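Q: What structure does this chain adopt?
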Amino acid sequence: MALVRWKDKGELTPFSALRDIENQFSRLFGELNRDFGPFDRVWSPTVDLKETDDAYALEADLPGLKKEDIDLTVVDNLVTIKGSRKHEAETKEKGYHRVERRYGSFERSFEIPGGFDAEKIKAHYEDGVLKVTLPKREEAKPKQIEVKVK
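A:
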């Protein structure tokens, strides 16, 4: 008996077949990436970017990094996070059978639509999470305009 991948009812759309192919490729290359060497040292942290009325909030998972390992730069409307997680010494001697955590350098950049006030940016790093607040420029904030009816 063959195992068949379970599909949610919501996946029965005209594009579900394309999404299935994309998922298969992602799974295939993810497994290759994990099991064969050349990409072992490449990793890309997960990032959430949220917009409120007053600011953009960016949160990046950077577990195992020290504050000194993280570089945050802003140029025009572009925010860039760079860093490096160093691989510890040989792990086979310590009884490890598998090493799946990613190490090495990463760089992620995000273009913020409408820009932000670079002078008021706040960044905080705690418990492996980098939180960056990018206040919107006054002209980019939503404005309420009262409509007068005669």
